[in-house]
Amino acid sequence: MNGKILTSPLPRSLSAKFESDFAYPTVKDRMPVILTKVVDTIYRMKNEILKMHGEDGVEDSKSIVGQLSRLKNELQTNKPLSTLEDDREDVILWNRYLDVDREVQVLDNGRCPSWFQSPWLYVECYFYRRIVSAISLSSLLKNLDPFQKQKENAFIESLPAISTLASYLNRIVSSTVTDLAKNHDIFLQLIQVALWGNKCDLSISAGADNSQTSNPLTVLDSLKQHLLRDDSERIWRHLVLDRSTSDAPVQLSIVLDNAGFELFTDLCLAEFLVARKLVDVVHFYAKSMPWFVSDVTLDDWNWTLESLSASEDRDVADVGRRWKSRVEDGSWHLHVHPFWTLPHDFQSMNSVAPDLHRSLAESRLIIFKGDLNYRKLFSDRKWPYTTDVSVAVQNFFPAPLCTLRTLKCDLAVGLKVGQAEKAQAENSDWMLTGTYAVIQFLASL
Question: Buried-most residue among 59, 152, 165, 391 (CB within 10 A)?
Fold first, then answer.
């Protein structure tokens, strides 16, 4: 079916105005908990802030806490959403989006945009942007990441699993075996490791520890029963077997999700593909600000490579140093673009961020990691579960793309008839806990 043709109106947006949507407990319960933990984190940093910035820094922290307390009150009393007032480069686009949503909400129901009224995608992104705004309005703490310690602790807690995976990766890349069948098997293994690494999401656990402690390789077989869609073979054929004879470099793009163990699994997959010359260059895309608790920022990327390189574990240190070399020699590139932290779905990318769209269009394959990217890819709507992926992406297709996502919200497309019902019978929360997953590939519209 042609992805550009919709035979019926678009499904409604997911929203907290529907108590049956996961948006409702997210806005009602999870987001206030996250906000409380941010405030607690800043309180706990008082001595550190005093040491670095003196009393002026402490006053800044009090101002931030005051703004976050007001934000919590606005959220819990369903106050209208307000314009942003900081000086970050995206403010104009955010406030313009609010104006558009205001027109829509007034036209539809005579109300202003609010937490329990507007689309969930907008509201949840707005929530994190308001946290950043409170910090950005300070004088001395503008670069504070209130989730930094949580992300670093999750990484540290995952070190046993990281060590196991690093040892395995080092054996692979040091081997001289170039057998295509062997590479195929390793690819299938590492793409699943990267998929299940997506379970480590601190926004879903409301900031509670969600690290990887078990051996990520030995649990793959037991997890396959929860893989609702597996297009790994199609991805392999597209990436490796169906390559043209052109001499142009083969570019892979990975739109990152979580820092910590998940980022490590993404880098392992990228290292294997580059080391075996299955791709020539990898472009990674990270967030420009602290986002959804555990999303990768530039600072997270740098901290991760430095921490790996400095590890006392020889295998871990080896991969860390190798990956720093990948960045230095240009085979890996990290990009930070403001679009990833806007409220827009990906269908708006070509008009809002045409430069980003052009960059992605140069890819042989784009890998979208995780739940938020999945939601934006399919415009966060209540699609029937059996909706074809090519329909749900609508007009967004810069290049062949795939999703690696463990399910943590009530949105899924591309399933077979009866799959959702079977999963529901097995686990009533099948869409919310990261237990089930999909690897989905779209070669063309």
Answer: 165
